Amino acid sequence: MKRLADRDFLTAMVLFGIGAVFSSGSSTDVKDWIFPLLAAYLILGIAVVLLARVVWAAVFNRAPDVVDGFRENWIVLIDLLVFGTIVLTYMFVMNGLGFWLASFLMLSVASVYLTQKKTRRNLILAVAVPLGVCIVAYLVFLRVFYVPLPEATWWSGLV
Amino acid sequence: MGTALLVPFTFALPPGAGIAMLGGLYVCAMFSDAIPAILVNTPGTPAAVATAFDGHPMVLQGRGQEAIVASCFSSALGTLFGATCYLLLAWPMTTIALKFGPPEFFWLGVFTLTIIGTLVGDSILKGLAGGAIGLLISSVGISHGNELARFTFGIPELRGGVSLVAALIGVFAIPQVLSMVAELRNKEFIAEYKPKRGETLKTIKKVLSHPVHVIRSAVIGTFIGILPGAGSPIAALVSYNEAVRWSKDKSQFGKGDLRGVTASEIANNAAAPAAMIPLITLGVPGSAPAAVIAGALMLRGLNPGPELFQTNATLVYSFGWSLLFAGIVTFILGSLFAPLLVRIISIPLRILAPLIMLLAVIGAYAIRNNIFDVYIMLGLGVFVFLVKRLGFHPGPIGLGLILGPIIEPSLVQALYISDATSIGRVFFTGTLNTILITLSVLSIAFVVWARMKEMAQERASQTAESE
């Protein structure tokens, strides 16, 4: 079972997947596909070599190079999942709430969650810093450089 | 993007001052893109990718101020060299640049790809695979031959291709943010920072203690800068590769070697004024910011090209002097603010990680005003974060992304040319092709030789230990 968590084996599987997805193109003119196909075949070739290495290691009973999972440190996994969820929610609500309000919410919610010692000072900092950053970024990007960022569609807000 | 944003501000100024302002910003940006590359391992532009290889490890070793000062001093040196070449050697250098056609650009790209050998970390195979993944991602979109949609999977937004900036932010910044979140419970900051007195002078002496390295990096940067389309990223990568190759002690590269930072920064800054040479002499912009400057000139009714030398020689030469002056100002400001800039690493990770995420989103979105670029950035970021656990290095993936848009069009154009003659004649004849092929072969041979030597040394030490 450990062989399935071997670094080379997992890499080979990932490369087979990428190679398969990107080696599907064809047309009458080879010039359209020659470049991506060469890269895709290189990836498939490397995947084959890595797989051969895994088989070789198994035949000669060499210990597999097992990838470190998050199983030993599930708190880190939870942190990553929560942070990922906050960022995905941010992406989802950005068009509705508008860029700046959504950004402020993302920053403050993420900072509050990631603050380990939830003292009053730390929590105030976790909200005040995002507010300051959003105000400065708003002034710089929108008022000085006129960089258009997504506007609110759920309400006629700040931008 | 900075030069484009500044264009409206130049309308109120006389042409000379307006163009000098744009050139100054371009030169300063070539230094400032190194700041996030060094401090948070997130290159500000593609030109700073190579700076991050050694700059960020220096920060982790508590040498952040040294890295920033070295970067701004090197940037100033590179700019001075490039601007001097602009002022004195513009025409002879243009003659050499004109000899570069599609096959030569193809081989230049292949030669630059050999840098993967110095970036791969533990596995050459995974380095190569990473480079190929980067090349594949860069090939998404409309083909260069018959304009066919490739790998768009029915998503209309992919027809425009993957934004290089968004992809690079995804490859470098997002894994860094996720790593910060993962390490948050074990460390509060990126690294410790203690301000040191006299650091600027010490660092300048260290940089100048390698004069050959400095000159080589400046020459490479200037030469690649004049090649239209190659630009600062290629200059920095080739210079870094050559610094590793010519160094007697290669073991510290990628682990915080000052020469890694200086090689990249000297070259990318030398390439910035050099990119103006084909613009001013031929009207062909050498890089994207040079194209913006060309546009700004045209808006004033000034057509870049040989005519400009005859009709507006004062503007042409004052522009060169302004670039030179910008290099000096970059150094003064950079070294003054270095102690302040390094304090970014003292921001707690709990606040820094979401902040970098916000800046990454703005950076990815603002280039094309397309939210799809942000999704691509996030997807790529998560992918690279995961494959890093399998032993991949983000460097080769970023390298593939940068080189893909240079290698593929050159390859396709050269193939079209070969329709009229033969592939062998187009790709394998001519002095420049021969030089570039020889350099590529030597570069690969050098990597293989260095690996074999390393393995032999490892085997010898293992045998000695067992005895």
Notes on the protein architecture:
The complex is a heterodimer of chains A (159) and B (467). Chain A has 159 residues and is an all-alpha fold. Chain A folds into two domains: 2-59; 72-144, no CATH class. Helices cover 67% and strands 0% of the residues of chain A. Chain A contains five helices and no strands. The longest helix of chain A has 26 residues, at 34-59. With 467 residues, chain B is an all-alpha fold. Chain B has one domain (2-462). A two-stranded antiparallel sheet of chain B has the order 1-2. In chain B, a hairpin with a 6-residue loop joins β1 and β2. In chain B, α6 (102-113) packs antiparallel against α20 (394-420) and α9 packs antiparallel against α20 (394-420). Chain B is globular, with a radius of gyration of 22 Å. Chain B starts with a helix and ends with a helix. Chains A and B meet through α1, α2, α3, α4 and α5 of A and α8, α9, α18, α19 and α20 of B.
